[in-house]
Design brief:
It is a single chain. The chain has helices at residues 83-97, 124-131, 139-143, 152-163, 188-197, 221-231, 244-255, and strands at residues 2-4, 7-9, 15-17, 21-31, 45-49, 52-54, 56-61, 67-74, 104-110, 114-121, 170-177, 201-206, 235-237, 259-263, 273-281, 286-289, 293-296. The strands form 4 sheets. The chain has a 6-stranded mixed beta sheet, with helices on both faces. Strand 2 (7-9) and strand 3 form a beta hairpin. It folds into 2 domains: 2-63 and 257-296, Immunoglobulin-like (Sandwich); 67-255, Rossmann fold. Helices cover 24% and strands 32% of the residues. It is globular and about 60 Å long. It starts with a strand and ends with a strand.
């Protein structure tokens, strides 16, 4: 997304004032074995837009900058048996990551409807209290159900358009789901593009009850993988070897090791459109994780 930033931090940590529209990119870099690399400099990166080389003007390591997180929890009936574990892991993650007066979190749940369980807050107490009530629909609610069943795409689009659009800085939505959507008015592309327009990374956690669909139900893994890949986030699957707590630890490590890069496009924006970004790291043997397009707004 193109944004006017009055204040940006250069590599030497000096604050400089500018009045230009900057394309911001958050990136993570790993070895081929998956180890995070957090000591690169601006000169280690190159960037192109729609194939045209661009000059990187701004660079920062993101360890200390404010963070806005959306916890997006699937509370449809297929998740009933894993919700207790999810709530516990969310609490532990917030205890480790949330910095009062600096970071903010909102909590949203989705099943046959989308509900904001807790608006943006820096209060662990408020988030703990809200998490306690994040649960599957009651029998009465199920009997009154009309229409959709699991509004995953709608929830992600709402979180990006209605919450993330109003904040600046680092933004990430963490979705815990089996990836199955039934009944959303929006398509998967709508939810991805809403995140991209609002500079929001999606981290997807595939956590499912193997018996929820009788062993033969739909597999939403590819949906969650696509959401993460196209927004510059990451996909994780909870298994016997990788617990939900370990997944949150990996996300925490990544959030603390991101790079923020910025450039000013060499082509003015005459028409609002998505433009391709090709961010690369010059050192061989490293893998870069970042979004591949941004919304150039007129």
């Amino acid at each position: 997304m193109l944004s006017a930033l009055p204040l940006l931090r250069a590599q030497d940590n000096a604050t400089i004032r500018v009045d230009v529209k900057v394309v911001n990119i958050l990136a993570s870099v790993r070895t081929k074995k998956g180890e995070i690399i957090s000591n690169l400099t601006q000169e280690d990166f190159s960037v192109a837009e729609n194939g045209r080389p661009q000059k990187l003007r701004y660079f920062a390591r993101e360890t200390d900058l404010p963070l806005t997180i959306g916890l997006m929890v699937d509370t449809s009936m297929s998740q009933e048996k894993v919700l207790i574990q999810e709530r516990g892991a969310c609490r532990r993650f917030l205890d480790q990551v949330l910095r009062p007066e600096k970071d903010q979190v909102f909590l949203m749940q989705f099943d046959m409807s989308v509900k904001t369980a807790q608006i943006l807050t820096s209060s662990r107490q408020k988030l703990d209290e809200a998490l306690a009530f994040v649960d599957t629909p009651t029998r009465s609610q199920l009997m009154q159900q009309v229409g959709g069943g699991t509004l995953l795409y709608d929830a992600m689009a709402i979180g990006a358009d209605e919450v993330m659009s109003k904040v600046t800085g680092r933004k990430a939505m963490i979705v815990l789901s089996d990836g199955v959507d039934t009944g959303s008015h929006r398509a998967i592309l709508d939810s991805i593009e809403a995140a991209l327009r609002n500079d929001t990374i999606i981290y997807s956690i595939y956590f499912t009850d193997a018996g929820a669909y009788g062993g033969f139900g739909p597999n939403g893994k590819a949906v969650l993988q696509r959401m993460a890949r196209e927004t510059g986030g990451a996909f994780y699957e909870v298994t016997k070897k990788l617990s939900i707590e370990q997944v949150f630890d990996l996300i925490q490590d990544e959030l603390r090791s991101q790079y923020s890069l910025g450039y000013v496009s060499d082509v003015p924006v005459d028409v609002s459109e998505f433009r391709r970004i090709q961010l690369a790291v010059k050192q061989k043997g490293l893998v870069i994780q970042a979004r591949d397009r941004y919304w150039a707004k007129r």
